[in-house]
Fold:
Amino acid sequence: MSNAQIEVMMMSEKKAVWMHIGAGSFHRAHQAWYLHKLREQGDDRWSIALGNIRDDASALLNNLAAQQGEYVLETVSPEGERQYETITSIRKVLPWDRDISALVEQGAAAETRVIAFTVTEGGYYLTPEHELDPQQADIQADLNGEIRTLYGALTRILKQRIAQHGEPVTLLNCDNLRHNGERFRHGFLSFLQAKGESELRQWVEKNTTSPNTMVDRITPRPTADVAARVLAATGKKDAVPVMGESFIQWVIEDDFINGRPALENVGVELVESVLPWEEAKIRILNATHSCIAWAGTLIGLNYIDESTRQSAIRQMAWEYVSRDVIPSLTPSPLDLANYRDVVLARFSNPYIKDTNQRVAADGLSKIPGMVTPTLTACYTRGETPSATAVLPALFFLFLKRWADGSLPYTYQDGVMQPDALRAVFNTPDPLSVWAADEALFAGLAKSPEFLALLRRTVAELEQWITQPESQLAAV
Structure:
């Protein structure tokens, strides 16, 4: 029996709080669902307190508070079967203010034993070498005492926790970041060092753990028709319903420092190392998702499912995984070919209606985190990554549309510096400048071979965009 399991047993008569930072749809369709299933089994030892660092979710939090934290989750299978559950695991909604006082109070409380977070890939402000980027404006602001980032928020929360009692706490990353626990932890410790918080840094090193995790469930932004279906199916007038696909998965390294819910009882995989699941998910699912979103946008499509069913786009995704990713991840304990096929079937689900706009976001973090490792791996084993090069080439053409104002929607990217990016596209040879960006392509930024590959691939894709029904045999 692991230490964490023993701790679960010791806590059998105690109530504990899982505080989650990031009040988006994904948390409410994923982590909150698992803790809800525990409560359904009669295990009510853990509940969730939900809050946000910024004020962009205040309306949602207010509506959620008015419903005592409860809401309806709609899930839909690829066959169109819809199910509805009222999620009851969020027992406290933490209102936002500029000083995040509710988050600080809850995070400092002894009953809070896990602080988890979903802030998206760009919310960690890491360089391609996985170091904290102190030049980012938000990081600079937090180093000067503001609270714009996870690091600034945790600094304030944990200082108050130390002042009150100093009990250990698990800091749990629930984002699509490779080695997410390790990378977050290194970024946070670097932030504390840069801020001169040496005592807090030492406390974090000794009194927190940061397990690596892999999370998976496609969760589009809810549209008005979700609430209408919820009302028709359940009779509940829900102001904040959420929907997602029927598929769900969560893999966590079992390294909790102050107890945890009995997540293994509701299908969570507690493992020694999450690496095989993480690599497969990031390179096969996440990178392919973005590929489809960028490609679909470029030929005028709005949704992931219709983009995936476009034969040329499906071909791009299939060849990227089959030709470059699977050889890069072999050997693996997972059936990678089967995983590829399951992923493409999930993306083809016509009932999800996930938008290309949502999935296309944060590409400046996704390229170095999800795509460049496969490019590098191919070159390392002596292969030209022709299939993988399609992804950065698509993103370049996508950004070109952004720069000239012809994207059909607003592009959101947490680390984008708009003026600097526009300057790239105002140069005589934007592709060569873009391909030389080490923040995107690491060591390949100096490779003439890689630049030549990108030029060929961009040219092929430009031709395809004018005739999207054609196949891309040459790419």
